[in-house]
Amino acid sequence: MKRVLHQSLHLAISASILLTFTAPLTAHAAEEINYYDSYISKTSGVQLYSAGQLDGNQFVDAVIARQPDGTYAKWQEPFHYFRNYGGDDLKLTGTDDPEQSYVYDTRSQSILRKTAYTLSPDGLWGYLERSRYLLMPNSPMGSGYVGKYHDYYLKNMKTGAVSVYYSTQRYYSAYWLNQHTLLESGYNEAAKQNVISTYDPSTGERHELLKGSMYNRNFSKGIIYYVKNEPQRLPWVYNLKSGTSRLITDYSELEALFPASPSSRPEAALPRDTVLKNLPVIEIPVSMTYEYSVSLDGQNADVSTVFSREGQDWIPVKPLAAAFGWSIESEDRGHLNAPSAGYSFEITSASKSVKLTPANSFNSGNRLYISQAQLKQLGYNTIVITPYLQQ
Questions:
Q1: Most buried among 101, 132, 157, 330, using CB within 10 Å?
Q2: In what order do the strands lie in the sheet containing 193-200?
Q3: pTM score, two decimals?
Q4: Would you put residue 388 in left (φ > 0), alpha (ψ -120 to 50) or beta?
Q5: How far apart are CA 341 and CA 133, in angstroms?
Q6: Residue 20: phi, psi to the nearest 5?
């Protein structure tokens, strides 16, 4: 009996092994789709989803569009992701590099290369944050000690002028409060502590409201949630209209005063068996927009931006080099953690050249910027910078 059972078991195992190698392969069930964000317009009928799905040992991200016939397709490369902040533009990329800053314009249903400023309530000013890396002063060149700076830009939408109005390595945040007043929260170097203040870009005036850090805001009620510069970090509410503060002792009241924003992250929208990498591709129109035109001795080139910092205008090198046939040679800085932080580039136009380093130029988002004085060193006499103004 035992021998018969043993033989039967042996045959069964052999058969299962044989089936393993001879049975046709079947497709695995599609992995779960993760939804990051969405945009749904009842007016235009556009439905977009920013989603991702595990494919083996890598993640596939894609922007998915629902087609008129109810099927789904994904956007073309390299657009895999968007964030919906509630305005007319969906952010597709970061803002550090103006040459690679893209948004989806929901009005024209197209992708635009543009600088995505956050407009003031009256539409007269735009606000923007960018980050850059710089080899710290007095740091040995081989040490690779690189500092991260946050630059805050303001654009006068009427004149087109763009400027860096504040730079810091410390915490700082700002939000449009009313018309064109910024409500700021950050470390004040002079006061040596965190300060909450207002800033008017039209006058350049800054007014301190409180010493502390802002944690939340509810502008519809005209209040902010902040903590004082003290170890207890107790919750206080400040009334922007009356200028008075009160201590909050019940956290349920705090939650009621500052409710969480509704999420645009959708529930499952695509069929469960959807495989993102296999979806058909649709081509969304892509257009380039420019903030300025630069004329050098009568020859013109469009550039993504021109901005001033501490009274000095900075113009991106790459579009000028492409338009005017410059050569650019760089010194190898591969020993640094961030090569762009400690750089040396030689720009040559015809028989003249200029060397750009952190000491005499500007670098942000791995983009190099040149001054008008350096353009004259390259042999250009007449330099005209003209903003493209919105109609």
A1: 101
A2: 172-178, 181-188, 193-200, 205-218, 223-228, 236-239, 245-247
A3: 0.83
A4: beta
A5: 5
A6: -60, -35
